[in-house]
Amino acid sequence: MLIEFKNNFRGYFTFYYKIIGNRIFAYLVLSILVSLLDGIGLAMFMPLFSAMSKDDSVSADDSTMGGLQFITDGIQALGISLNITTVLCVLGLLFTFKGVCKFIQLNFQVDLRYQFIRTVRTLLIENLTKLSYPGFLKLESGRVHNTLTSEVTKVFTSMNFYFLALQNAVMLLTYIGLAFLANAQFAILVAIGGVLSNLLYKKIYTATKQISIKLSANGVKFTSYMIQAIHNFKYLKSTNYFSRYSEKLKDVMHENEVLNKRVGFYNAISLSAKEPMIMIIVAGVIQIQISVIGTSLGAILLSLMFFYRALNFLVIIQNNWQSFVQNTGGMMSVTSTLNDMYDMREEITDVPPPTIQRALKIKDVDFSYGETKILDKINLEMPRNQTIALVGESGSGKTTLANLISGLISPDRGEITIDQVPLNNYDLNAFRSRIGYISQDAVVFNDSIYNNITFWAEPSEENKKRFWEVVELTSLTSFISTQPEKEQTRLGNNGILISGGQKQRISIARELYKKAEILILDEATSALDSETEKIIQENIEKLHGTYTMVIIAHRLSTIKNADIIYLLEKGKVTASGSFDTMLEVSERFKRMVNLQEI
Ligand SMILES: Nc1ncnc2c1ncn2[C@@H]1O[C@H](COP(=O)(O)OP(=O)(O)OP(=O)(O)O)[C@@H](O)[C@H]1O
């Protein structure tokens, strides 16, 4: 889903409406009801004041009620006589009803908040799931991380203040309306006072909005540095680069501090200007009413009360808006990340791919990263249940080729086919769910060994049996038996609590557990000692003929039994054949074998 919004009051409303839907109107109606009840309740004080000066009797045509006379008229029309007791009872009833409405409104607000935050997070996760791999390479990980955590919260906070401002705007309008009914001149003066104070606040909002955008960008920078610090902690620690690296973090923190101080400065202006502004406007209005217009103080008392309250709400709105603006940077960064992800999404069909009957083929494939050609006219065949090996010097394009085979990237030219049908015609997600990928960097989650290998499968008898089978195949049995909590032992962040070789074996076990059709092993056994490597190698050998396998290896001893070996040199396949054939046809391959003294 693509979200766009215009940078104005209506644009923000549309943005929230897109996320929350029609419930936004129910919330508005509740807000109006609460403010109306509050206003009418307040108006009921007037007959009370007049009764105090007229021996307990409440006059039905009290001039202090102005245009709000209909309220007391309405009470009398119901057959209730007006006296202090009935007015007090009506007051009590009105404010109780207002309390009930406020309670419903606040609960509804909490519900909306969670609906909102859930919808935005779900959208982000959905877009992240659909994001193409090349798209992911373009997105900074700090940006994704920051958006999913702090920026979403900022959007939610912005919505909170937007609604508070809106709710208080309803209050303001109600009071202006009531003040207008009580005394029309007051309403005009409120409008003038409001417009004047808004001019000052508009300048503050613009400045705050700019800072908010900068703060969001800085947040991305900080998160990005932090992720890298945690990821590379061991290296930074062992080389004592940490102190130099932490300087970078401190710089970003300092930039943040400067920006936050500026926000604080504008906040201070907006908050401290509140009271004097109200008092000046109120005093000015009273002065104009009495000396210029010649109204008596009694006649304007109710209007003045509404007016004072309206002004209070005006200032509250300005403060709400200031807080809203402070968080608008979050709205912008969430929408831009969402939309960037959407633009770089993977378009896939829903045609399920068949199992390979004959072969997966790569035909005349070219691939470039930017301007740099990485693969040049590659032709390669992976016959069903056979093992192919990709060898070649570092940077020759082996992993890029594996990425093409797994459909992570698409060729610029040429095609990849399953039994003559282009791979892109099929649902690539369904295809990938049949791939087992063991990469150079072992993938380990901070969870139990069981969950790491089964990928959180139900601990049913059948699953447990399969778990122990793959544990045996990957020589992990004795390792697990020495662990304090056996297969329930947790592995720590990125498998920090276990060795590199153990991590690699757990990664292999996960892919074997998966019942994949194609196994891609990219330097899968490189972190293992020769003895463990030999055992796992033998176990992988046992799978020969049951999986279609791609093995990428620098250690040529591990691919001796591959059905077809492809030698890659600078993105081109320069020789192919069985191990023995390769020794005959490729001088380069022969040299590589001799160097490794196989
Ligand atoms: N995301 C990327 N953006 C730009 N260039 C890339 C990217 N990934 C890889 N490359 C470049 O593509 C070339 C081939 O990389 P690849 O990882 O496929 O090589 P390899 O043969 O697997 O190397 P190794 O044996 O060292 O793993 C390299 O020159 C590399 O710098």
From TrEMBL:
Stretches that traverse the bilayer:
24-49, 75-97, 161-178, 184-201, 278-308
One Pfam family matching this protein: ABC_tran
GO CC terms, sorted: plasma membrane
Which topology term describes how it sits in the membrane? Multi-pass membrane protein
- Tell me the GO molecular function terms: ABC-type transporter activity; ATP binding; ATP hydrolysis activity; ATPase-coupled lipid transmembrane transporter activity
Which parts of the sequence belong to the ABC transmembrane type-1 domain? Answer: 25-326
What name has this protein been given in UniProt?
A: ABC transporter ATP-binding protein
